[in-house]
Design a protein that fits this description.
CATH superfamily of the largest domain in chain A: AhpD-like
Oligomer: homohexamer
Protein name (chains A, B, C, D, E, F): Carboxymuconolactone decarboxylase family protein
Mean pLDDT of chain A: 97
InterPro entries (chains A, B, C, D, E, F): AhpD-like (IPR029032), AhpD_core (IPR004675), CMD-like (IPR003779)
CATH architecture of the largest domain in chain A: Up-down Bundle
Low-confidence stretches of chain A: none
Largest interface: A-B, 68 and 68 residues
Number of helices of chain A: 6
Number of domains of chain A: 2
Distance between the termini of chain A: 46 Å
GO molecular function (chains A, B, C, D, E, F): peroxiredoxin activity
Largest sheet of chain A: none
Strand content of chain A: under 5%
CATH topology of the largest domain in chain A: AhpD-like
Helix content of chain A: 55-70%
Chain lengths: ~130, ~130, ~130, ~130, ~130, ~130
């Protein structure tokens, strides 16, 4: 039901093949998920997205699992069903337990609720919170 | 500029006074921020929100700093300026360094971007991601 | 801070003057708020918006106060600060009491929370809910 | 397609069983919809959500049907398909006629439109709307 | 799965029949898509929406293809799957090539990303950008 | 009121200085706006964002003004006030006339309205719109 066709391996441009090989190597699996097959129509966008994603999601001051959970939280607030599915799977693959998942959901729900209350009341920012 | 008046200490109902005292004790400061002063018009909502927030944000399978960063991510996707200010301050108070903040911002930006790409292409969920 | 200038009465086109007169007559006040002064740069949009607003917000199967509260709820979920301010004022003018306002806020917060939980869990629609 | 499995009756914890019994009693039906079955993985969240929902949606200064329509409006602005389905069904069960539904849709559409116009023009809040 | 039934041609009111005939004439096809069949329950809303859509999307200072692409961009940010499908189809019918589509997607992704970064940092508007 | 301090020229890292020089050269002005000064705390994010923005917004199958208008539309649906201000200014600098601006606003408003109607009715995608 996508608005662009998902590209099969034998339809890819040389540049897209290269990115797909990097995705396979980084993840240790032959499977390349639909997002990349949709993006492959635009090899420059495919390359830029993969390169930046790899850099952003790498271990750093935050560990990769925390980053996946933040990704999932943003995707939820943006109602991106595909993203929620793929980043829930990724978070589990990186060690998110059922208990961690439940707490993550609770924080998302809590944030949504108070976002709504604060916005509806148009509460002014306290001076104490200003940099 | 709020759409409800912020309540001063001497205007609070008995139930609201009790919640304010709990907030002060939990945080170790006399200062009670504007969100609670706006919410205090409805003591039942104030009590329910504080009780649930305390439970949800407590240490558990996820540590409180991770929870603050998830809260900040949701608040950003929902464009809640007040919430972004207050939870950035809270995350810093719980140990978020400049480097962690920068990585959090990068993940939020990345998630927003791919949320947009996926949604615009209406990519179908891979079977591999289904529970 | 608007991205279009607010138009003063003596700058209006003839068509815009006519709409402003209708707004004043319908509301029983000389005051025309900023939204209409921003929209007046495009008299066709001004006319279409005012005509449709008048029809949609008129008493019908739902009473005008209920409509204002629905308007406020949508504006909150869309983070439209101006709209929240103007429709809170309009709801109060139409009889929204403090107690009604508090209950409205509680429903908005509850809906936001469960929207987040449902979306994060990607719950499938029950057959019982399908038309 | 949910990212958590829907729990069957014989998998529930004692605390979840108790909440399910309350849901059945309150609604006068054996049927418990998918949202609660997804939430049942976290009995504390299940309990907190059900308790607060019951309190918030009870008759008060606003009648329950008005509350359902506000819920539906928020769910629409947040693109929560499941929530739209379940709260449309609930609103109908509480007496929403076709005519009321049509007017509700018209108000939601109108609010979305003017939210977009106001935000795109960044109209400043009138002093008259400030508390 | 809609929350209102799609109306068949032989169920339409006289006013709805008239709008459907205008849609068919304007588009040069007998096919009337689901949106209009859902909206037909409320002939006044159907009429108002069609009339305004026709006026807004007509050639003017912006050409119709640009308008379709803007429509698609807004629908993406609002996660309206139906709207994304229908306006992608409409944009292609009006001449959007694969290359234009790819560039449009890239701009949407870029805007989403920087929207997230700016909002998370709560950057203040430069004086230079104020009207 | 930002949650990160805006960096002055004499506080920038060498990598940030380099990006600022490229921004100045590309735009033919000494002025560097607040977004970049906030982003400069993370030189890698600054570099990645500037490089991708330059590539995405360059003339191609779509002209730069169309791209600015799409950017503005997305920023509006995401309620990013700063982004709306900066991209309205950029669109004007690239030739957006008052008439084009008015038509852009009308399309955004129309899209928002029908997004709301379609979502509230959960209209199913026509087979004719599927790729």
């Amino acid at each position: 039901m996508a608005t662009v066709r998902l590209m099969a391996d034998d339809e890819l441009s040389a540049e897209a093949v290269e990115v797909f090989e990097e995705i396979r190597a980084a993840r240790g699996t032959e499977y390349v998920n639909n997002f990349w097959r949709a993006l492959a129509h635009d090899p420059a966008q495919l390359r830029a997205t993969w390169d930046r994603l790899k850099a952003v999601m790498a271990p750093g001051a935050l560990d990769p699992l925390v980053k996946e959970m933040v990704y999932l939280a943003v995707s939820t607030a943006n109602s991106c069903g595909y993203c929620i599915h793929s980043h829930t799977a990724a978070a589990k693959a990186k060690g998110m337990t059922e208990e961690m998942h439940a707490e993550l959901l609770a924080v998302i729900g809590m944030a949504m609720q108070t976002n709504g209350l604060v916005t509806a009341m148009q509460v002014e920012v306290d001076d104490a919170f200003k940099v």
